[in-house]
Amino acid sequence: MCDAISISIIKDVVLITTGVIGSIIGFKGYSLWKKQLSGIDKYNIGKKALLALIDFEDGIKTLRNSLSPSVTIPNPDDSINTRTNKEYQKRIEIAYDKRKNLLLAFKECDVVTNFEYSKKIVPLNLIFVDVIISIQIHLSSLLKDSSDNNMATFKGSTGLSVIELLYDVGAEDKLNLKIRNHILEIEKDVRKLFK
């Protein structure tokens, strides 16, 4: 009888020990799985943020490049100034969508990482606003068929004139260099999500 009780106790101890060990393994596996998912989330959000930066830069270049292909179908009855206005309005709409995607991507980074990545893109937003204001000043001067005094006096947060903000002059373009430098700085921080 003593052997039956000993076997029963040993069996209970082995079952309890197995249950505890199984629970520990399960908990560690769950923690590892959760950490892996968090890493995947950070990777995907970091990738989305980097792509949004590239799209945003492309949107600014499209706004500023007078040689970009037309995004509207011209109406032959419209004056050249009206066609220019319509063309810029469509480009602005496209650029706003790219800016919205940039803002959303960086807000997601904020949520997942508990770090304020969206503050890092404030300089890019200021540049965007300066370019839009420059376009509006240019368009208002075209539609009035007169030179607008704001064309000569406006200096945005970048310190650049309307003409410098409005037209992309290539490799040495001051605004492109500012945008590129801001993006490189932001990319360094976002790439930390991939580690």
In short:
With 195 residues, this protein is mainly α.
Question: What's the pLDDT, averaged over the residues?
Answer: 80
Question: Residue ranges: pLDDT <50 for 5 or more in a row?
Answer: none
Major sheet details: none
Instruction: Kindly provide the radius of gyration, computed on alpha-carbon positions and rounded to a whole number of angstroms.
Output: 29 Å
What does this structure look like?
- The chain is built from six helices and no strands.
- With 195 residues, the chain is mostly helical.
- It has one domain.
- 20% of the residues are buried.
Features:
195 residues; mainly alpha; 75% helix
Please write out the topology:
Layout: H1 2-64, H2 80-113, H3 122-143, H4 149-153, H5 162-166, H6 174-191
